[in-house]
Amino acid sequence: MKTVNMGRAISWGLIANIISIILLDLSDQDIPKILWYLLIIWGLTGSGYFIFFQNKFEYFLKRLLEAFVSLFVIASLCFILLRTIPGGPFDQERALPAEVKASIEKKYGLDRPLYEQYLKYMLGIAKGDLGESYKYVGRPVTEIIMESFPVSFQMGFYSLILALLMGIPLGVFAAYYHNRIWDHLAMFFAISGVALPSFFVGPLLVMVFCFGVPFAFLEGSLPPALWESPAYYILPVITLGIRPAAIIARLIRASVLEVKNSDFIRTAKAKGLGTLPILYKHILKNSMIPCLSVLGPLSAGILSGSFVNEILFAVPGMGKHLVQSVTNRDYPLVLGLTLIYSVLLILANFIIDILYVVFDPRIEL
Amino acid sequence: MKKLIPFIFLVFALILSSCHFKSWKSEEFKVEFSGKKQIFSIKNTIRLNFHSEPPQIDWQKASDSISAHLVNNIMQGLTSYQNVKDEKNLVISKIVPGLAESWEPNANATKWIFHLKKNVKWTDGVEFTADQFVSSFERLMTADTASEFASFLFFIQNAQDFNQKKIKDFSKVGVHARDPWTLEFSLNQPVSYLPSILAHYSTFPVRTDLIKKYGDHWVDVDKIQTLGAYKLQAWQHDKALWLRRNDSYFGEQPQIENIVAYMINEASTAANLYDTDQLDINDLISSTDIPKLKNHKEFRTGINFTIQYYGFNTKNEFLKDPLVRKAINLAIDRKQLVKLMGAGQKPMNSFLPYGIFAYNEDIGLKFDPALAQKLLLQAGYKTSKIEQSMNGFDISSKKLAPRIQIQFNTGEDNQKVAENIQAQIFKNLGLEIELKSEEWKTYLKHVKTQTPDIYRSGWSADFADPESFIGVLKSNSENNNTKWKSEQYDKLAVQAASELNEKKRLELYNQIQKLLCEEDVPVIPLFSSVKAFMIKKRVQNYLSGPMSSLIMKDTRLEQQ
Q1: Contact B21/A222, CB-based, under 8 Å?
Q2: Per-residue CA distances from B277 to A74, A213, B40 (Å)
């Protein structure tokens, strides 16, 4: 009797759960809370299974410790760097009267010695309190992140899916038709995707899909900006997704070309396997490793929001804050956002490390 | 299970394509806010753009134009601005009664009586009385509130001492409620522009009882109580503000039922939304688009009490000589600058913006390169240009003028202006200028601590009176970075501010402007800005005035 592979069951459950959430979201339905709870349960059982059944407890602990050390270093460095750049949060064109400025600085504890501020901030983080924004008076940083991160995540997640759905087939396709016109066409697209900045691609798409230039029948088919319903997602998601799609396509092509000529593929061919199964089962699986290693940092970057994209399409996401908080010298917000970004990066890399094993069982964690 | 994958993707693709994307335009907005769903019909909703998230609503603490747009729609002060066209067809902001019905000063304007309207109710039904105004004023003047604007009410008796904690007892401060509908202001000095200060949002009353109850959370959408024509209905952070008509408003009910204010700060995005009919008024227009839009029939401009100027560091070895400063002023043709900006900005030779009381285009140094060269020579400096034009005269005893630096904060328009001025000064005077741009906060810091030779700055009126501008360059002003100090200027400024007779007042301001812009010239006035905006045909009766814009109280929406 075939034993049920638990790891596999959990991952399929997780995927099914994610897909149902996506489908509901894209059809503009409310997502029932139960799906989110289920998602958490899948995640917890997944990590539980991973830790206890695969005897990865030690590894997990090690990574966790590493993560905390990194976060601590990042927070400290960021704190120090922020205080060294010129200009403070309350400098403005209409200079504040000295007493008023003093009183505001006192309110936020900026009149205390630096080490005291640092200690207070670190203790706050330990308690999960990131402080209050200086610019947006009365709004805790955690609240700003809780409100803007989901939007950025939503946009980034769809872009990432789009990037994978476009990039992988394109790369395989190009490699399959190596050095033929299709290959060149695909790579032309990929290179343009990497080279063209989103502040060019975005307006170009808006011109085509909103103003019908040069295809008049497309006029008004999509909204040019804002973030209301699925129709509003399309242009920003494409704009954000094209670049990673191009990066993935180029990587996949290169590694597929390498794997294509290896011995086991020749064996598979000799055994009479069809082209598609060879391509997608044997070649692709073995070509994913280089792609995975860029996917970690790439997805952290995309999921935490893109400044240009959010400004261009008026998306109320986190990328805007990442840039503007520095301009405003909004210390708590900058620190909070940096920490979230770091957590995301660490998490993404962790997931990618586990995926390595899935794609190449020879790799030991 | 594996066979399911293609199937899942198929379903995914089907759903994607079956969503009727063509129908994204709907006739109503569904807004979900704090668990409640609200519906706003497009037909009676005006769609505006506030450019970005208002940093805060607490109007005693706020100090930025975005918060002001919001506050001016949901609140009202004792007086308020109404935009009307004057005889020259210029839209001006006139002071009209707000919460007060009428007011009168005593003979020398040191005591003002304001009679409040009766039956004015807050959104929660509580009646507005003079006592509430007095307690709001106490909060405004309290040091812990840290209001930026407290300092411009220091002319009220004992207000400064109270603010600086020299007096504990607020009843000694010159704001009193004689009875529930009569307010009395006692001032240290005559102040003729008191009514226009009372139209500023920082003086609007607040509900101190609610502040006591909720603390800083009194401004939360579900707790805030207001007096204006609209009330805040929902606030989607970084996205939109939703306002609905206030049924208990004491004045005439506005015709427009709802306002949605988006927070879009990219001009091309705002233009796209306007062009696809998702914005009714677009006042975020990039200066590069102006030439293209100028002849559009929906394009409008209005004057704005905002000036752009360059300040000299008058402690600089070269620039401390008024002759040099005059020469530089004379070498700049403002008309050329204004043409470059293109939106109809008004050239400025003096420090007051176009359209304000005492604006006088005859005062100030007019473009005159020959005189500029002469003055520079007189100051003991020469340049290659002067050597050329002084052919035949011996000017070898003169020193070669040093290179100077213009610093400005990074920005497309600032760059354009600086480059133009650099070229003009070099062409007309031969003076070599270096440009340096810096990121905003770094720039502010440097202007304060290591003032550049010449720095860019701007100023917007806080109240519709020349004092709002003249005050900037007083010796004790935090905003005077020129290091120029003139006792005579300070004295004249105080005198002008307290003068009640318009004719005499005008004369005093002419004197001040002459002193500032013809004799000592610590600044280079450049131009006063305009508000350029696009407005849809369905919006009627909207005027953008120099002191108030995007106020929807008197505006109408035509039903198509």
Answers
A1: yes
A2: 46, 17, 16
pLDDT in tens, A64-95: 999 999 999 999 999 999 989 888 888 888 88
Owner of token pair 């328009």: B413
Within 8 A of B53 by CB-CB distance, chain A residues are 136
CB B540 within 8 A of CB B557: yes
Single out the residue of A219, A230, A233, A208 nearest to residue A314, CA to CA: A233
Distance of residue B163 Cα from the nearest chain A Cα, in angstroms: 10
B24: chain A residues, CB-CB within 8 Å: 222-223, 228-229, 231-232
Contacts of A174 (CB under 8 A, 6+ apart): A182, A183, A186, A187, A190, A249, A253
Amino acid sitting at position B451: T
What residues in B contact A276, CB-CB < 8 Å? none
Residue-level pLDDT at B2: 52
Bridge partners (DSSP) of residue B460 are B306
> How would you label A151-173 residue by residue, b for 16+ Cβ within 10 Å and e otherwise?
bbbbbbbbbbebbbbbbbbbbbb
Give dist(CA B230, CA B259) in Å, integer. Answer: 8
**What is the nearest CA distance from A257 to chain B, expressed in angstroms?**
25
Considering CB atoms only, which of B151, B268, B445 is closest to A97?
A: B151
Instruction: Tell me the sheet residues that pair with B100.
Output: B116
What is the tens place of the pLDDT at every residue in B232-289? Answer: 999 999 999 999 999 999 999 999 999 999 999 899 999 999 999 999 999 999 888 8
- Note whether A91 contacts B239, CB cutoff 8 Å: no
Q: pLDDT digit string (tens) for A261-320?
A: 888 888 888 888 888 888 877 888 888 888 888 888 898 889 888 899 999 999 999 999
Convert the pLDDT of each residue in B209-238 to its tens digit: 999 999 889 999 999 999 999 999 999 999
Rounded-to-integer distance, Cα B126 and Cα B122, Å: 5
Size of interface A-B (CB pairs under 8 A): 148
Using a CB-CB cut-off of 8 Å, the residues of chain B touching A227 are: 239
Residue of B115, B123, B84 lying closest to B98 (CA atoms): B115
- Any idea what DSSP says for residue B401? P
DSSP state at residue B187 = B
What are the two backbone dihedrals, phi and then psi, of residue B401, each rounded to the nearest 5 degrees? Answer: -65, 140
| A87, A92, A97 ranked by CB distance to B442: nearest | A87
